[in-house]
């Protein structure tokens, strides 16, 4: 009996060990993958390109009240690149315009012609201030010859005749909320280039004209093709939607030379209203007023061009056309 008990106890113990081995805890490992998307770095560059084409046309057929058929076209573009990082800002803008007009019985005539480039670099002390210590450079010229119509034999202007450069240092006030930008420079170099010798010999656009012999009329000294001035420059730019779908833009440049009749102010003022029809169609009304004491007017008298004194120059624009932004 004692042996039987020992055998039974051994069997029970063996069964217990076997059961424990079969029911041991199972450890399940779950791996969870978390994917974190790192956003692309924000570029400090802001880019905007705008091109447009304005077209106006009027035609008459057997119109008893009379009239002249005509068609006008204006191609324009505005391209900006602005670098803004920390307290440093570098703004670049290029403006191009070219327009022509064709009337019955009259040759094709130019109505607008401009190439303008401006670059301004500025640094501010903190991120709160709207004032920057700035340096500005600008370059203005035209694409083709200009004429005092109907005389198309003698150009009164050419590409790079004139061309203007401004280079200076000063302070810039830039307020994004109020959409206004002001620049004040007490030290700006202005260069006037007339890279056509015939126009330079005439002293066009303020350069020193040629010297001729009073008797023979022979040219003794060529006219200078460049004039440098040092003066004070003030510019302002304002662009804002004043009513729904109506945007007003204003640009003003004022310059006065310290050495040559300080107080005589060169004025270049542009103002424009843009009336938005839809995303691609826009009407505009604007004007450009220029006064420069160094630019002498020209008049046609008895088939000859006569140089007269400086005059206020005024250009008015009214157009409707297509606009594409990209």
TrEMBL record:
A Pfam family recorded for this sequence: DUF3078
Origin: domain of life: Bacteria
InterPro entries per the UniProt record, alphabetical: DUF3078
Identification of the protein by name: DUF3078 domain-containing protein
Lineage: Bacteria, Pseudomonadati, Bacteroidota, Flavobacteriia, Flavobacteriales
